[in-house]
Amino acid sequence: MIGWKEFELELLRDKNDNVAIICSIENFDPMGVHTGDSITVAPAMTLSDRTYQKMRDMAIKMMRSIGNFSGGCNVQFAVSPDEREEIIAVEINPRVSRSSALASKATGYPIARIATKLAIGYTLDEIQNQITKSSSAFFEPALDYVIVKIPRWNFDKFKGANRELGFQMKSVGEAMGIGRSFQEALQKAAQSLEIKRNGLGADGREMTDQKILLEALQKPGWSRLFMIYDAMKLGISINTIHKLTHIDKWFLRQIEELIALEQEIQKYTLETISRELLYEAKQKGYADRQIAHLLRCLESEVYKKRQEMKIGRVFKLVDTCAAEFEAKTPYYYSTFEEENESVVSDKKKVIILGSGPNRIGQGIEFDYACVHGVLAAQECGYEAIMINCNPETVSTDFSVADKLYFEPVFWEYIYDIIQHEKPEGVIVQLGGQTALKLSEKINRYGIKIFGTPFHSLDIAEDRGSFSTLLKNCNIPYPLFGVAEDADQALKVAKELAYPLLVRPSYVLGGQSMKIVINDEELEQHIVKLLQDIPGNKILLDHFLEGAIEAEADAICDGENIQIIGIMEHIEPAGIHSGDSYAVLPPFDLSEEVIRTIEKYTKIIALELKTVGLINIQFAIQDNKVYVIEANPRASRTVPFIAKAYQEPYINYATKIMLGKNKLKDFEFSPKKKGYAIKIPVFSFEKFPEVQKELGPEMKSTGEAIYFIDDLYDEYFQNIYSERNLYLSR
Questions:
Q1: Hey, CA dihedral for 69, 73, 76, 77, is it positive or negative?
Q2: Coil/strand/helix, residue 418
Q3: What distance in Å separates the CA atoms of residue 213 and residue 233, rounded to the nearest whole number?
Q4: Does residue 726 carry a pLDDT above 70?
Q5: What is the mean predicted confidence (pLDDT) over 322-339?
Q6: Which of 11, 31, 6 is closest to 23 using CA atoms?
Q7: Cα 470 from chain centroid?
Q8: What distance in Å separates the CA atoms of residue 335 and residue 317, rounded to the nearest whole number?
């Protein structure tokens, strides 16, 4: 069945044997690629109604045949890629699946919530439809839009990994786009990935080597969607692409139409393009910066032209019933049409930026932060508005925020929502680097950032500026230098002495960090960094060998500071904090070192004019405390500390950011008993050919918490004895 088309159905069944089909999902990729690694589309696009009805009947029969149970069910099918459309059942999961979360976000139908009620004895006709609030949950959603999910991979973290996709899932996250057409949803999903692309094509980053393209089409990989686009642009025929990929020609023709549209746009300039052509590009999901690339002008000029031509973004409800009933749930996506369905209230509002697709270094911890931030903003009397594009997260549940915009965390979309909603300000501290990277534009456009001011965020992000701040405060830090090319780097290396920690500015999860021990290694790494990120500054720090690492999280209101937790890493310096076992509170740091960490944390938080959260990382060598970096935002460790000490730190920090409270308004009484250990979780089994080496670049895909009463605990003794394993340079 390799090469056959793949489909999934999401079902619900109650104790009276009532069954509802909630969603049909079609895999863009054919059989042979794990569904978690496939681009998926809902509703199914290429299935005839006759075959869909047959598939529906088969799914219900399968569900009934495996037992008398109530709840959710996922059924997967293979369909022959010819006119016969022969169906073969592949798999049935009598539970909610990974696809159930996607189907819930795609339809607005809360599958897990309803499945739980069915499991405890309710029937579908007894449960209220959460969207309409006036009909029952016993209905099958009808969509007047299309959703496209694209997985997100992190192969760059695993050097030498087999990047070919197959039966074993390798993606670490996903992004979803909602549009009125497949093309619009596809572009929006591609814009949500945060892989330095502006969408699907039209950004000057096409591959033009025919041999590489043909190989990439034959072997499914993470970039195959982009390779299909590039191959078509190069002139490779749809028949050849179909033969190599087995992807349905309907999807391929959709991409071909996009390329034809781009070629038409390129015939014009900003001054000569017609309103009809610009409007068509926007309806098909093209971002202003993609259109600017095609018209050879600036993104801001395209935006201005759109305003002059009255081509404005409108917002539509995700209503599950194709507008047949009035929807009560404020869950929106944007498109380019006439009618706007998002009614702006007269309440004071705050927008909270989400963290986009999960990836190594930025995962579900930021979803925790966003959700608790939304709840805290609501407690402060704000209408809390969430912007995010990740179907896996709680922050994109339509019942969490007062308003949810399921949109790319991408400047153009955010700015249009801000223009529409006119909030008092935006919170960027809770959405990881995704949100933080947008703070410069938010500030430049005169939009208020709640909490720590942009200038301070920028100082902390720029390692050079931050080291200057430390120098002025007489706080020790590893000697550092900045270089813009390999020659400069080699000069700096002579002054600093090896080993050196080399990294680009503005990095996430230790991306592209490396410890180098000689000139040859340094030059090779610098050349690679500048290829990947042209024009970026390279930072070189003297690496403190054999040092102990620790980190502190704190909340500051601009005047006072509360340290909420100090954690000591079990592994030595050189292993990324996200890959280290960490113990809360520290287990063998001296009182003097802990007091120094507290002192430096307070000085830095106040110097950075922190309002909200801050995380500071330290290295201790020969009892001397050095500061490595500071992040004035929610860190990966805040949820861990909050759960270990049973205190709602994100809630407190958000209320301080919004100016509702000061630190003195909260009573801090953490429940401290024994120690809590943060355990990194790795996925090396997905890449058996990769060495299990740890270093300054993060590789863990999750974490767990483990409580011990004392340091004699056998678990602690075991991991402490293995602390030097796998350290790599």
A1: positive
A2: helix
A3: 11
A4: no
A5: 81
A6: 11
A7: 32
A8: 11
Report how far residue 132's alpha carbon sits from residue 325's, in angstroms, rounded to the nearest whole number. Answer: 7
Q: Which amino acid is at 549?
A: E
CB-CB contact of 437 with 511 (8 Å): no
Q: Cis omega (within 30 of 0) on the bond before 585? A: yes
Nearest to 178 by CA among 313, 300, 86, 303: 313
C-alpha 106, offset from chain centre: 17
- The number of helix segments (H) and strand segments (E) in the chain equals 23, 24
* Residue 124 DSSP label: G
CA distances from 180 to 281, 294, 405, 699, 722 (A): 13, 23, 15, 37, 54
Helix/strand/coil for 720: helix
Residue type (1 letter), 413: Y
What predicted TM-score, i.e. pTM, was given to this entire model? 0.94
The burial class, CB within 10 Å (0-12 / 13-18 / 19+), for 207 is middle
Average pLDDT over residues 354-361: 94
Residue 430 identity (one-letter amino acid): L
Q: 174-178, 334-338, 491-495 — which is least confidently predicted?
A: 491-495
Query: Residue 503: pLDDT band by 50, 70, 90 thresholds?
Result: confident
**Residue 501 confidence (pLDDT) above 90:** no
Give strand ranges (E) for 28-61.
40-42
Helix (H, G, I), strand (E, B) or coil at 248: coil
The predicted structure's pLDDT at residue 87: 97
SS3 715: helix
- Beta-bridge mates of residue 541: 480, 501
